[in-house]
Amino acid sequence: MPLLPILRFPDPRLKTVAAPVEKIDDSIRRLARDMAETMYEAPGIGLAATQVDVHLRVIVIDSSETRDQLLVLINPELEASEGVQVCEEGCLSVPGIFDKVERAQRVVVRYLDVQGKRQTVAAEGLLAVCLQHEMDHLEGRVFVEHLSQLKQTRIKAKLAKQSRITA
Ligand code: GNR
Ligand code: NI
Predict the structure, then answer these.
(1) 28 vs 165, residue with greater confidence
(2) How many separate domains does the chain show?
(3) Which of 38, 46, 51, 101 is the most exposed place for a label (fewest CB within 10 A)?
């Protein structure tokens, strides 16, 4: 199975708002499989289709220590959220950059699984952070956009310098 190339911030394609999946067929299941493989290989704890330049509402997440709790969420919707937590976040689209972001402590998310069955996940802590981080990607938002303009400018400069070195 192919690994998918991941878009890097500030690629304007990361700003695309993803469209709902209309029909969960083999092409969607293949996309989810390829995204999961790409996430595990990276390694990361989540990946949104937006990051692999597919603008459909599909997310894969595995925030378990054992890397055996894959969640595939299609058309996820935030049903409830409460509390506040601050977590140091990173993003596969913003390599080498980590900073604190404020998020809800607990969320309830409704979604369709790869069989098209309605599911609900209630999460707190890191899984709740990851769900919010991935749902942001589907709205065209990257975590650094929660930071100050000054930090965003510095991050763009640092990433531009990195890509000159690695080019
Ligand atoms: O791998 C990832 N780690 C992470 C750590 C803290 C908060 C969020 C994340 S998600 C990130 C993978 C990614 O970029 N998903 O979009
Ligand atoms: Ni990310």
Answers:
(1) 28
(2) 1
(3) 101
